[in-house]
Amino acid sequence: MGCPTATYLAASGIGKINLVDFQKPELSNLNRQIMHFEEDIGKKNKSDSLREKLEKLNSSIKIKSFSLKVDENNISKFKESDVLVDCLDNFETRYLLNKFSLKEKIPLIHAAVEAYYGQITTIIPGKTPCIQCLFPDMPNKKDVFPIIGPICGVLGSIEAMEVIKVLLGIGDTLSGKLLIVDIKCMDFDTINFKRRNDCPVCSECFS
Ligand SMILES: [Zn+2]
Known about the structure:
Number of helices: 6
Structural class: alpha/beta
CATH architecture of the largest domain: 3-Layer(aba) Sandwich
CATH superfamily of the largest domain: NAD(P)-binding Rossmann-like Domain
Shape: globular
Strand content: 15-25%
Distance between the termini: 33 Å
Radius of gyration: 16 Å
Bound molecules: zinc ion
């Protein structure tokens, strides 16, 4: 989802964008990571490859690329951010990003995809539930899972729209709501969810 989200944010003129990824593009990524091309496979880092494309799209904004795996030691690099965007493929880093968002009081757009399905919510620290209110136990890690390319485009576009709404303070965001998308049956459902009293992250940050 990083490719569509960052592309729409760059095209919209979001002034500063930090791209974080430590991996290199692979052939099996190209069905959805549409800003990486065949010529990039195995050569550049994904964050550099995406930055180069976005700089050609909009030369008037500042884009930085970080070739790193986010962990507890380096995540503080991003505490000046106005919004965080979760385009991750694992809950381990997602939990870390969630905790960082709440501690630093930086809004976080969370999205996840698998196969034909996607989910997205907007977390406003101190106001809405967090990712661990929604998923108190870390889902089992899958080393390999299928992704139909367009689901990343759908969810990534919605993530970009949520970022723009949070930054501009316009419209209604998905705060406290989880949008569940099934593009196989073309169902879009929204459910409300609440903060859990026993959520360890909310308890620590907002006790
Ligand atoms: Zn929570």
